[in-house]
Amino acid sequence: ATAFGISKFNYDQLDLLNDDSELNLNSECFYFEEDQLIAQRDRLKKSFSVLSLNSQSLRAKFEDIEQLIDRLAHKGSIFDAICLQETWLSNEDDRSLLALNNYTLSHKSKHASAHGGLITYVRDIYILKKS
Length: 131
Fold this sequence. Notes:
21% of the residues lie in helices and 27% in strands. With 131 residues, the chain is α+β, with helices and mostly antiparallel strands. It starts with a strand and ends in an 8-residue tail after the last strand.
């Protein structure tokens, strides 16, 4: 079974007193099966939602991720942003092949290691269109 993470962060617990203070982040991370993820997303429909996945080579797994996003959307679980880590993409990779319907893609190529790279998809409804 595939498990997905959802993280709950309470910003009231963020304590930044001055430049010398430590950043106090109290958060919990839970992992869910796909149906459990849908149930959790349904509970938070009015919240801005982010799905974060470690892709470990997006070119090899893009179709699986695309199918997951489609399955979740067909069940009413649409995420406002989707963040993918470890895409393993370089500047030479064609990102047009990695488009998701109704999302705008932003990327950062791998730099420090072969396993780097980030992609963020943001729902088109949040993107300002130039007139």
